[in-house]
Structures are given as C-alpha cells and as structure tokens.
Design goal:
This protein is mostly helical. Helices cover 57% and strands 7% of the residues. Helix 2 (48-67) packs across helix 6 (146-182), helix 6 (146-182) packs antiparallel against helix 7 (202-226) and helix 11 (333-357) runs antiparallel to helix 12.
C-alpha cells in the first residue's frame, strides 16, 4: 500500500539523530532495527496475535502503574486507548521490525513502545515525536524491561494462536471419526512392516488416526497451561528493579482480566526470566503432533497408491492433474504437502531446543527465534489440519472389493488357525500356500486338520477383525 508522506520529524536516541517520516507511528529505534535485521522478511505485523499481545501487556502495565501512582492517570488513559485501538486492529502495519532479531526482543518491545506512544500523543492532541508528553521508555515502558514484557507477550501470542490450531485439529479428528463410522464394515488386511498381518476394518484404521490426533490435542493443551506462568514485574533480570512494590502481582492480575487468559505470576522471577523450558515443552508437543499426522499421511499415500499397480484400497479426492507429461495421473498432493509441513515443524523443534539451551546467566537472548518458530509452526499446523480435513479426509472413499480380495488371498489369515493347529502346523500351511499360490483355507481342509465348519467359523473376516466379539454375534455382511 502506498503511504502518503507528510513531512519528517527528527528523533534522537543514545546513538544520535535520525529523520522519521510523519506517516510512521514507529520511531528511531524501530527505524534502526529495520536496517539492522533484514533477515526473514516477516514483520511483526504478520502475527496478529503477537501485536495484540504486545498491546495487552502495555495496557496492563499502564493501568497497574497508574493504580500504584507510578504513572500520571491522563498518560495512562491515553496509553490504554492507544492499546485498545491496536487490539481492535488499527496500526498493525506500523509493527515493521523483522521477527528474527538480536537484542533478546528489544527491537520488538521498542517498536510497540514507539507506536503506542505516538498514537497516545495524537489522542492527547500532540504531534508524533513530542515525547516530552508521552515517552516510549519513561511512560509506555514504565516498570518494565524487554526481558519481562517480551516473553510475556510471546506466551500470550502462542496461547492465542494455539486456540485456533486446536480448533483446526479438532475438525481433523472429527473427520477421521466420521470416516471410522463410514468404513466400519469394510474388511481389509492389516499390515506390519509392510507385510500382511491379520484382518481388520478400515474403520478401525481411521479410528486409530482419530485417537492419534486427539493425543496431539491433549499434549498441546497440557503444554499451554505452562505458558500461562509469566514474569511481568521481573524487569531486567528478575529482581524487579525500577518497579513499585506490588506491581508484579497487580500487572499480572490486570493482564489476566484484559486478555481473558488465567495467568499466574512465576514464583521465582529470576528463574522465569532466564529459563525458556516452557517454550521447549510447547515446541516438543507440536513436534509430536506433527510426527503422528505425518505418519497418517504416509498411510494415506500408500493406501491410495496405484490405481492399477498399487494398493488402491482407498481413493483420495482428485485435486489437480499430477503430471506435465503423463496424462491422467493424479497425485496425493494433500498428504504430500502435509508431510512436508510436518517435516518443517519437526525441524523447528530442534531450533527451539537449541535456542532454549542458549540461555546464559540471567537472560535468554534467543527468544526471538523461539517466537518466530512457535508462531510459524502453529500457523502451519492449523492450516495443514484444516486443508487435510476438508480437501482430503472428508472426500475419501473405500474400494471395498479390493480390500476384501486382499483378505481372501492373504496368507496372514493363517494366524487365526494358531489356537487350533499350533504355530508349527500353521507355519507349514503358510509356507505351502506361499509356494503354491493355493489358499490357506483349502490347504487346512485338504490335510484334514480342520473341518469346513471350523474353518468357516475361525476365518470369518468380521470375527478376525473383532476377535473379542461375543459368540453368536456377527456384523452385517457388505
């Protein structure tokens, strides 16, 4: 979007002076950060929840400071109004610093401080840059340090983003549950180590996938609780220097009220300011969810392989032509892309792990790369879950005859004969069936080891798929 330039203002910091366009609500420190950190190309404004979380932190701090007499009530009121406008969606385009940065998040914190200060100045009838009335550091950053404001905002942003990701994963779980019901009567061969195992239903397979996704949801919800412990009031290293008595508790209380998240002040602020373990736990939960979803996508690709020379047990919805040279080819593009997204999430976890380990003494300088990876991963997983559900799982159909043929021709069903024949005789039948191409059924009866009635009872596919089903109860035929 083209921004109209209406002149410049001159700002200064400890390094000198710089001209800032009056069209910008950010100031000199943000301008320097834009020059210094041209890395990912992803600005803070890309993460709406992060920008809103920064505004929530500043709003809570302003209110707490005013209540404790550390900030003029009129200035506090203007800061609160500025924050509310940001939370409502205004001024996000002025959060321009690259998410990946040095300084442990100082540039992000100052970007927020400067934008909020300049919006507050206009609310009070002043011009941008007239910081003697509302100052980014003295007023917006009152009783704070980057070292408590930044990680608190990251935690709030992750918790808010996680809610959307969890909603998407619940949609995916529901899709698998629906297919489990639809495919409950589809008999197929189970496989272990890519070899024939014993019969099961396609519904059982999809039911297992639903449970896997549910496990991921449970782990993420548990990790989310740990992120609700914050270090507001720690200031630089956890000692609370430059904050009034009672500020840490009051700011945490106000932030809980404004954010709608039940937050808890850390018991040891020195520890909480340097320890990034809670971020690592969240990243690990995301990685585990990705591992499970990627495994499912592997199965979907194999089960739909073919259509003539593969397994061809299921049909995935055809989404696009699959080749620039082979007419009629359709690829399993949705499981393929979700596989790749999962690989990215798994790799991101290593980055977060290394960054969490990089903490030295009283501060972790690598929190920006943690924030970048967690917020990016949550966005990827959310989008992947929705796309996989709506553009793949919901449209899957079963090739019932193909699945049934695999069961009828399988040697794996000989396992059901073990309780009657014993392992050795069952193995000899399997070996002969494999060598001659004859069926397990015919060989067992021919050798006189079992009667037709016994075989018919033991080798019912429905009974093998549900061996604990009470006698006399059979599931309906196809």
């Amino acid at each position: 979007m083209r921004v109209e330039v209406t002149g410049f203002r001159r700002e200064h910091d400890s390094l000198g002076d710089r001209e800032i366009s009056n069209s910008h609500y950010f100031g000199i420190q943000t301008s320097r950060a834009v020059d210094n950190f041209p890395f990912s190309g992803i600005r803070l404004s890309h993460y709406q929840h992060f920008v809103n979380a920064l505004a929530l932190v500043k709003k809570a701090a302003a209110v707490a400071n005013a209540e404790l007499g550390a900030l003029d009530p009129e200035i506090s009121k203007a800061i609160v109004q500025a924050c509310d406008r940001i939370i409502a969606g205004e001024f996000h385009q002025h959060f321009v610093v690259d998410v990946v940065q040095g300084g442990a998040g100082t540039s992000t914190n100052m970007n927020a401080n400067e934008v909020i200060a300049n919006v507050a100045l206009e609310i009070l009838g002043h011009r941008k840059g007239e910081y003697e009335f509302v100052h980014p550091n003295d007023h917006v950053n009152c009783s704070q340090s980057t070292n408590d404001a930044y990680p608190t905002a990251v935690k709030l942003a992750v918790v808010a983003s996680l809610k959307e990701t969890l909603s998407a994963l619940k949609v995916l779980r529901k899709s698998f549950e629906a297919k489990a019901v639809e495919f409950d009567d589809v008999i197929k061969m189970g496989r272990t180590e890519n070899q024939d195992a014993v019969p099961m239903t396609l519904g059982q397979e999809f039911s297992a996938y639903a449970v896997m996704v549910g496990d991921g949801i449970r782990r993420l919800e548990r990790a989310s609780g740990d992120l609700c412990v914050i270090n507001m009031g720690a200031t630089a290293i956890g000692t609370g220097l430059n904050s009034p008595p009672g500020y840490a508790e009051l700011c945490t209380k106000r932030l809980s009220e404004f954010s709608g998240v039940e937050l808890e002040l850390a018991g040891n602020l020195v520890e909480a300011t340097q320890d990034a373990a809670d971020f690592a736990v969240m990243s690990g939960a995301l990685k585990t969810a990705a591992l499970q979803i990627s495994k499912i996508c592997n199965d979907l690709r194999w089960a739909s392989s073919g259509p003539r020379c593969g397994l061809n047990e299921i049909n995935l919805p055809p989404l696009q032509p699959g080749s620039s040279i082979m007419p009629g080819k359709v690829n399993p593009v949705m499981p393929e892309v979700v596989n790749q997204i999962c690989y990215q999430i798994i790799g991101s976890d290593l980055t977060v792990s290394m960054a969490a380990e990089a903490s030295e003494f009283e501060l972790n300088m690598a929190e920006p790369i943690i924030a970048y990876n967690l917020l990016s991963t949550l966005m990827l997983l959310k989008n992947a879950a929705i796309a996989l559900s709506t553009r793949c799982i919901d449209g899957i159909t079963a090739n019932r005859e193909r699945c049934a043929d695999y069961v009828k021709n399988s040697i794996g069903i000989v396992t059901a004969l073990n309780p009657v024949l014993g392992y050795e005789r069952s193995a000899s039948i399997a070996k002969e069936a494999l060598k001659t191409g004859r069926s397990v059924y015919d060989l067992a009866m021919e050798k006189g080891w079992m009667t037709k009635e016994q075989l018919d009872d033991l080798l019912q596919p429905q009974k093998m798929a549900n061996p604990l089903m009470p006698d006399g109860v059979t599931e309906p035929d196809e």
